[in-house]
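Long-time lurker. I teach an intro course on protein structure, and each term I like to show students one example going from raw sequence to a predicted 3D structure in token notation. This year I'd like something fresh instead of my usual example. Would anyone be willing to generate the tokens for the chain below so I can use it in lecture? Attribution to the forum is fine with me.
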Amino acid sequence: MKTPLVIGGVTVESGEKVKHCFLVPSTENYELPVVIINGKEDGKVFLATAGVHGAEFPGVQACIELAEEIDPELVKGAVILIPVVNTPGFYGRRAYVCPADEENKNFNRVFPGKPDGTTADKVAWFITEEIVRRCDFHVDLHSGDIVESLEEFCAVGNTPDPELKAYITEAAKHTCFTHRINSGGSGEVYNRTAIGLGIPALLFERGGAGRVVPEEIARNKADLISLMQFMEILPGDPIDNSEAQIFYPRHHWGEAGATGCFYSYVKLGDEIRKGQLIGEIKDPFGKTLEKITAKFDARIKIINNCLGISEGDDTFMYGSSVNED
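-- Reply from a regular --
Happy to contribute to a lecture. Here you go:
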């Protein structure tokens, strides 16, 4: 008989599925819903987190549905699902930040957290120490936030370890994402898993603009299941998308250089050319405050949907692509 799995003081016996709402220590009753599925045989531990940004919904619903559908009898190892990390942002429909945090922090900028910081720091610390460290693979599910439209892609955690990066890349090819990038960041949830802990981690970006689209939820579920099959946690053959997946070796996240009215002159999926005018920011009287031009030939992947924009907000993300042999 496989040994029990203990998470945050909660014991999950072999062959058992437990749904538990943790009260994060040293917070004002911050509730964190977690589903722990402990198989009957030894194997790897797979973690999926969603709702780090509370208004990014397809990943949340995918985790909710998988929590119901995965049978512990079929699991070799364990599966841990956190359908909503940012519960106050989710129920309050807030973009980016955690409204329960004393400094309105963005969860995607505080991991691995700390035990004596603000509320977001403490929640991040609890997740890192009690859950992430126990896992063998971590997928963090995102979307374009409630203010963004997005053309879906996955991102490989920005680890400096070439063997680890190769493993994550191989895992990514067992999803149905057409587009893949290598992350250039360091502070995001999945990057802290890969860089800070040396655990393989992927980012899913699928859906956006506050929509709940059944097809996007279904693709998230299929990709998570495929990764579990790749790791031999669930039975069956994983998706093989190695020939069709397109790699984006170069990408750019643009930030607004002024506060004003944002106008996009391109659409998702548009191919743009270096120097092309792709957007402007103007004041309420029509005076141009910033012209936004493409830094290189690329494809538009994310667009801010809002007319009103503040300096430092995201405007566009675009990338240049290449098919791998």
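Some talking points for your students: The two ends are 45 Å apart (CA to CA). The CA atoms of residues 62 and 325 lie 32 Å apart.
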